[in-house]
């Protein structure tokens, strides 16, 4: 029987993107982690490389964006299309489109290109700061949820590949992030379904070239009489070339078909004609067989879970593998945190599979369509212009191509990750029935990502991105858009008063000594599960900080004024209020999940109504009864 030292909150197998991001969250949030990988060294170079705009937001929130940007990665703003000229005269540019068009509301309208080795290293360094070490080369040889210990029900047998010594540990949860050939998935007998039966073998080459091809610093798809290639600019003057070596639709299909470096280089030279292409050096080359597949289940018992490539594989064309792995990991981590922190019932863990599997299915469908979009029909310049620049899409609704283009861009950027109504994403079927939910005029849709808003932080007058002000701390973020303080003073006071009531969602989960928090505590003075902020609509807010009730004054670094213009709401007096649809006088409240997706919006009213509604919302999954049981808020 393992002794206490061999008991962990989570054992993580695999230190690719999904394992690393989950490990970082758990380590930051104070959990005891055992994290192993079977390779002696982390990825040195190559493999996945495209960080999509929404993923960059997540990485910033986790505190590692600066480390990545220090490598001066390439940024892809535009995609160019090259097609054959008649009579074998080579290729010419036939169109281009923005990689992240202006209708997508992001601070990062580009894909960041950096090889997986550098990305993994940034995670590993940050994880080490929180006292978790990734042990290598170790593998998993067995596991069982035998329930012999009700707190640590899963027994895991691990093997040190240097010494062949096996150790047995117990854990609350086991997370399989071992990539496409997942041992855990196989042991659980979870089937992989192949949506698109067609498989491909890709040759991927990173290196430095000299060329007169004018778009070498742009992402390009090139179709030529000699074959097709995808070009992706990279850090350190490098370029990545993806060449499809074979496909299961080929008459002589052989999944083990391969190509040497020089064969791919020669193929690339032929495709680039009439432009020259000379290789200075090759940094990485891999032949990468891939089929579209999705795991039937992401868990069987809500103790052993899988994520990332263990659950879904697809072509590298849209650059989604690593990004989807990031989203899986974050979704998994905050839900385990809510349960293990004692806030939420274990039944919420079902939403990991229901939310993430639906996104993976959408991704696979999209991957197939995206491939067709790239190869079957090139857009006209007018269509691309219309799709890129039109924010509301109203003029284009009949144009199928434009609609496809928009949803494709939104999806690949990561802002198209929209979770359906469930216990976390409020909708009319949610158990919380207060009439104050979803106030009229508010444009925020539960399940979507909270948009970017720039506001002024009152404590130091910095202009700050509101969506980044709370780091990834595993807490719900409650933004109180407080409108005009002269109008909302009473509502804010009532909000605070009701928060402090014994059975409120907030008081029920306070830290043991919540009155005695550190002077330097910015985000979680009272509770591990909530960070509050107040955003006034006008400058007057500045004078009201001292008059805020003490529960809100504890968040002195999270009091803001909404006085920064936003191009999306020209001439707005309070741009963030207007953009989100909150009344600039009377405000409103938005609750964000710990991953930054919108949970619910509630009207800000005098009396107990707003907190009553939130009590109802949280009571749907909290471990304690909340509120006074009188769920019908008065309008
Ligand atoms: C050779 C290769 C080339 C790729 N090239 C591209 C590309 O060009 N573009 C692109 O978009 N995507 C590419 N991918 C896919 C991309 O890397 C993945 O989508 C992404 O890394 C998914 O992250 P993950 O954490 O789920 O899995 P992975 O990154 O695969 O990480 C899994 C980790 O688990 C470890 N592991 C596996 N089994 C065990 C075990 N039994 N015990 C302990 N550890 C284990 C592995 O060593 C690895 O470190 C490539 C993948 C591979 C394998």
TrEMBL record:
Segments passing through the bilayer: none
Keywords associated with the record: FAD, Flavoprotein, Oxidoreductase
UniProt keyword Cell division, yes or no: no
CDD domains assigned to the protein according to its UniProt record, in alphabetical order: PHOX_C (cd02979)
MF-aspect GO terms: FAD binding; oxidoreductase activity, acting on paired donors, with incorporation or reduction of molecular oxygen, NAD(P)H as one donor, and incorporation of one atom of oxygen
Origin superkingdom: Eukaryota
Pfam families: FAD_binding_3, Phe_hydrox_dim
Phenol hydroxylase-like C-terminal dimerisation domain boundaries: 417-624
Presence of keyword Flavoprotein: yes
Ranges of residues in domain FAD-binding: 8-366
InterPro entries: FAD-bd (IPR002938), FAD/NAD-bd_sf (IPR036188), Phe_hydrox_C_dim_dom (IPR012941), PHOX_C_sf (IPR038220), RIFMO-like (IPR050641), Thioredoxin-like_sf (IPR036249)
Similarity field: Belongs to the PheA/TfdB FAD monooxygenase family.
Protein's UniProt name: FAD-binding domain-containing protein
């Amino acid at each position: 029987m393992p002794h206490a030292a061999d008991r962990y909150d989570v054992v993580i197998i695999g230190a690719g993107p999904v394992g690393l991001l989950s490990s970082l969250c758990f380590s930051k949030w104070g959990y005891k982690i055992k994290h192993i990988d079977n390779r002696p060294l982390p990825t040195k170079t190559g493999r996945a490389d495209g960080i999509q705009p929404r993923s960059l937001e997540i990485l910033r929130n986790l505190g590692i964006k600066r480390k990545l940007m220090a490598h001066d990665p390439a940024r892809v703003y535009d995609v160019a299309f090259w097609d054959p000229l008649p009579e074998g005269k080579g290729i010419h540019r036939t169109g281009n489109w923005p990689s992240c068009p202006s209708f997508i509301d992001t601070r990062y309208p580009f894909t960041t290109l950096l090889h997986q080795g550098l990305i993994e290293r940034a995670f590993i360094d940050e994880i080490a700061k929180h006292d978790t070490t990734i042990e290598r080369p170790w593998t998993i040889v067995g596991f069982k949820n035998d329930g012999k210990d009700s707190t640590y029900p899963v027994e895991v047998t691990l093997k040190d590949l240097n010494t062949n010594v096996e150790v047995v540990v117990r854990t609350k949860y086991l997370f399989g992030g071992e990539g496409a050939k997942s041992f855990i998935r196989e042991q659980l007998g979870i089937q992989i379904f192949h949506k698109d039966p067609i498989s491909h073998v890709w040759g991927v080459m990173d290196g430095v070239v000299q060329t007169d091809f004018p778009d070498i610093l742009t992402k390009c798809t090139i179709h030529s009489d000699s074959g097709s290639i995808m070009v992706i600019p990279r850090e350190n003057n490098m370029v990545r070339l993806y060449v499809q070596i074979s496909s299961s639709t080929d008459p002589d299909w052989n999944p083990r078909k391969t190509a040497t470096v020089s064969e791919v280089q020669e193929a690339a030279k032929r495709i680039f004609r009439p432009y020259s292409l000379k290789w200075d050096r090759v940094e990485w080359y891999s032949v990468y067989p891939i089929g579209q597949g999705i795991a039937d289940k992401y868990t069987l018992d809500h103790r052993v879970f899988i994520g990332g490539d263990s659950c879904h594989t697809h072509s590298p064309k849209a650059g989604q593998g690593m990004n989807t792995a990031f989203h899986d990991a974050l979704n998994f981590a905050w839900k385990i945190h809510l349960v293990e922190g004692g806030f939420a019932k274990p039944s919420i863990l079902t939403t990991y599979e229901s939310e993430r599997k639906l996104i993976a299915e959408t991704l696979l469908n999209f991957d197939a369509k995206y491939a067709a979009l790239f190869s079957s029909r090139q857009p006209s310049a007018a269509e691309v212009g219309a799709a890129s620049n039109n924010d509301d899409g109203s003029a284009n609704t009949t144009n199928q191509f434009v609609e496809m283009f928009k949803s494709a861009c939104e999806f690949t950027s990561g802002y198209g990750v929209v979770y359906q109504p469930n216990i976390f994403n409020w909708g009319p079927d949610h158990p919380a029935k207060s009439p104050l939910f979803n106030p009229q005029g508010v444009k925020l849709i539960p399940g979507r990502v909270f948009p970017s808003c720039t506001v002024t932080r009152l404590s130091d007058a910095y202009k700050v991105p509101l969506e980044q002000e709370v780091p990834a701390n595993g807490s719900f973020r409650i933004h109180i858009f407080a409108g005009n303080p002269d109008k909302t003073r009473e509502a804010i006071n009532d909000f605070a008063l009701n928060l402090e009531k014994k059975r409120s969602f907030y008081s029920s989960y306070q830290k043991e000594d919540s009155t005695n928090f550190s002077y330097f505590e910015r985000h979680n003075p009272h509770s591990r599960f909530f960070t509050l902020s107040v955003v006034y609509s006008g400058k007057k807010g500045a004078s009201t900080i001292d008059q805020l009730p003490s529960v809100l004054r504890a968040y002195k670094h999270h009091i803001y004024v909404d006085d920064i213009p936003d191009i999306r709401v020209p001439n707005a007096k309070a741009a963030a209020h207007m953009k989100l649809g909150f009344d600039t006088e009377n405000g409103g409240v938005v609750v964000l999940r710990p991953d930054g997706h919108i949970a619910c919006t509630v009207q800000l009213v005098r009396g107990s109504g707003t907190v009553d509604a939130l009590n109802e919302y949280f009571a749907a999954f909290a471990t304690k009864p909340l509120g006074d049981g009188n769920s019908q808020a008065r309008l």
